[in-house]
Design a protein that fits this description.
Elements (H helix, E strand, L loop, with lengths): L6 H35 L1 H16 L2 H12 L3 H25 L3 H9 L4 H32 L11 H9 L3 H26 L3 H6 L5 H25 L9 E5 L4 H17 L3 E5 L6 H10 L4 E5 H8 L8 H12 L1 E3 L9 E6 H7 L4 H7 L4 E5 H5 L4 H7 L6 E5 L4 H6 L5 E5 L4 H4 L2 E3 L12 E6 H6 L2 H6 L8 H12 L5 H11 L6
Parallel strand pairs: 1-2, 6-7, 6-8
Antiparallel strand pairs: 3-10, 4-10, 5-8, 5-9
Length: about 500
């Protein structure tokens, strides 16, 4: 990946990150200071508000994003709520503490001079509490900028998107660029608030006794911030997305899903006048994308028949695609537009050298040797009804140790020797790259996971031409071709856009 070649991509992520962080900090500052002042003057409210703020801070941020999806959906609204809730603690505490620590003799002196409660607040409490408030603001700024990186998991954008895309596609430069971008952003944010703290600059301006140089210094920094926010708004122009003919294409956080999402997006853009918003790499996969489709936050994505049958419809019987289609239509007003032709089912893979040495070819063979294996898989695999909990009932594995990890890390773990057996997908590029042996599911536990396009019926009614356009992909992407495209992304480091363009060219569809 060449940074210069993708400068537009990173500028978009930077602009999104800046705008999300700025908006969150604006809300946090206003509400945090207001709540801090309120609880200072209202002891009864303090006994409720302070423990509540403390409790919210103990909830893992990534869990908070997920918990809010059923309530507010994915995207910016979800991200802002989480960032504001987490940012409140330092601001509220520091505002309350700063006012509480104002020396009593100064308050008594002001009262003795006839100051009203409003004058006491404006001329005594708030100015003397300001250093403490700015200290809390400084902590909150760094924290919010860092947490904004997680907002990419629920489709809000930002530099975290580069990190998660890099993790899911084995692209280290993307991870490094996204991480350094957030770190630099946090440092600059800390420095900016630091200029307000320095030599009591802001306090002197409020008290109207600041030197001209101090005023100019503050105004310069505020001007730079305003310019950056304005340029970010102009660059990404969020209002341009409010168009009459627009759909949102989503994807799970997997290499092939980025590619398939891009193929669908380009095909729609090439053959219709519909504008496509790309929401790729949604954390949680089906768990979060399916509810977002039902709420209308997303419009279409690629799903797998086995996942839909067992995890969405909660069926335990043998998969019936016609029944699957009918239940999706009846229960959710969603349609399956055929199948793409690939079967990306679960598999178990071990190093070829170990398979040869121990003569392990099937799952049943692995059962007999499982005590010598450390098994690694993503969190979802250990939770899903169609995966590990049911798998060990058919194949009574007795692995030496189980390792739960992010889906993007299991191949890295087996490459580094931390595990010697992993769950895999049959289209994974790393199977060949790392010389792994995919074992035979000799008792046919895993069902077929054929990929198909799921789309909201309301979208098809609004844009009936989409059905004809997307059905061109039916049966056109084989398991082997998908594995090859994954290899191009993960090993050759081509971009999803380039891979999609090349694939569509083979079908006779050129980018217009």
């Amino acid at each position: 990946m060449n940074f210069i070649d993708r400068i537009s991509y990173f500028l978009t992520l930077f602009s999104e990150h800046l705008l999300i962080s700025f908006l969150a900090m604006l809300i946090v500052t206003v509400f945090g200071v207001a709540i801090g002042i309120w609880v200072f003057y209202k002891p009864k409210a303090r006994r409720i508000i302070m423990p509540t703020v403390n409790f919210l801070y103990t909830i893992p941020s990534i869990a908070m994003f997920g918990l809010l999806i059923p309530l507010v959906g994915i995207g910016l609204q979800n991200a802002l709520i989480v960032l504001v809730l987490y940012g409140l603690l330092p601001i509220v505490h520091n505002t309350y503490s700063g006012m509480k620590e104002v020396p009593y003799h100064l308050v008594d002196a002001a009262k003795g001079l006839g100051s009203t409660p409003q004058q006491l607040f404006r001329h005594v409490y708030f100015p003397l509490a300001l250093p403490s408030i700015l200290s809390g603001l400084r902590i909150t700024t760094v924290m919010v900028i860092a947490l904004t990186g997680l907002a990419a998991l629920i489709g809000a954008g930002g530099l975290g998107q580069a990190i998660f895309r890099g993790l899911n596609t084995m692209n280290t430069p993307l991870i490094v660029t996204g991480s350094l971008g957030i770190s630099l952003f946090a440092i600059l944010g800390d420095k900016f608030v630091g200029t307000l703290e320095k030599n009591n600059n802001l306090q002197r301006i409020i008290n109207r006794n600041a030197q001209p140089s101090q005023k100019h210094f503050i105004y310069l920094n505020l001007g730079i911030l305003a310019a950056l926010v304005l340029m970010s708004l102009v660059y990404i122009n969020p209002f341009s997305k409010i168009k009459d003919r627009v759909i949102t294409v989503a994807s799970k956080p997997m290499s092939e899903q980025y590619i398939l999402g891009e193929i669908m997006s380009q095909l729609i853009e090439n053959q219709t006048d519909i504008n496509v918003i790309r929401q790729f790499g949604i954390g949680g996969g089906t768990t979060n994308i399916h509810p977002a489709l039902l709420s209308g936050d997303l419009d279409m994505y690629v799903e797998y028949t086995g996942t839909a049958w067992m995890n969405v419809l909660n069926q335990q019987s043998q998969l019936n695609f016609e029944q699957l289609q009918q239940q999706y239509q009846d229960n959710y007003q969603l349609q399956w537009l055929g199948l793409l032709g690939m079967n990306n089912t679960y598999a178990i893979a071990i190093p070829q050298s170990i398979a040869t040495q121990k003569q392990i070819k099937t799952y049943s063979d692995l059962v007999r040797h499982s005590v010598a294996f450390d098994f690694g898989a993503e969190f979802e695999f250990f939770e899903r009804a169609d995966a590990y909990p049911s798998l060990i009932k058919v194949y009574p594995f007795n692995f030496a140790k189980l390792h739960e990890m992010d889906i993007s890390l299991r191949y890295k773990a087996i490459e580094e020797g931390k595990v010697n057996a992993i769950d895999a997908f049959t289209t994974d590029a790393q199977i060949e790259a790392l010389d792994l042996q995919v074992l035979v599911d000799d008792k046919h536990f895993f069902p077929d996971y054929e990929a198909g396009i799921v789309i909201r019926e309301a979208v098809l009614q609004q844009y009936p031409e989409l059905k004809t356009v997307l059905m061109q992909l039916e049966g056109k992407i084989s398991t082997e071709s998908m594995r090859k495209m994954n290899y191009q992304l993960e090993v050759l480091k081509e971009t999803p856009k380039e891979i999609a363009q090349a694939f569509l060219a083979t079908l006779g569809h050129k980018d217009e």
